[in-house]
Specification:
single chain; mainly alpha; 4 helices; elongated; MICOS_subunit_Mic19; MICOS complex subunit MIC19
Length: 159
């Protein structure tokens, strides 16, 4: 029951099918031929005179020469600008290196502890007068003043 395919076949002949007569085909073909005949013929190609080609070639050569000169001028201007920039770069690099060297030298000088001379005098005074420390009070005050000046200079330099 419905599990297998049916072996019956059905064929229908269409007796009312449209048939086109040879006369109708001839009329349709005649109409197509008439439409194709009505289409305009392609226009003839215009062939310019030979002197026109020479004139165009001359204009083309003149344009090529103009642009070649223009490109060369731009290349020269570009090279001139590049050389100027290179010189400025070298000059600026040299100045920067000189400033960097000065800063580095200044840092080396500033890395030494301040007031070394006053410190040496004070320590020598204490060594030569171990029992009389009040004799070195003037040198201690000088050392203290030097340290205060160094601190003030460091603070004002950093701000």
């Amino acid at each position: 029951m419905g599990g297998s395919q049916s072996t019956r076949k059905l064929s229908v002949d269409n007796e009312n099918a449209i048939q086109v007569s040879q006369e109708a085909l001839d009329r349709i073909q005649a109409q197509l031929n008439a439409k194709q005949a009505e289409q305009p013929a392609p226009q003839p190609q215009y062939a310019p005179p030979p002197y026109y080609d020479k004139q165009k070639q001359h204009e083309y050569a003149a344009e090529e020469a103009y642009w070649a000169r223009r490109i060369e001028n731009l290349k020269r201007a570009h090279e001139k600008i590049n050389s100027g920039m290179h010189l400025e770069y070298q000059k600026t690099l040299k100045e920067a290196n000189e400033l960097f060297d000065l800063v580095q030298a200044d840092k080396v000088v500033n890395k030494l502890p301040p007031c070394q001379e006053e410190k040496g005098k004070m320590l020598e005074c204490y060594s030569s007068n171990p029992d009389k420390s009040l004799l070195c009070s003037v040198l201690v005050n000088q050392f203290n003043d030097c340290v205060c000046r160094s601190r003030i200079a460091a603070v004002s330099a950093s701000s």
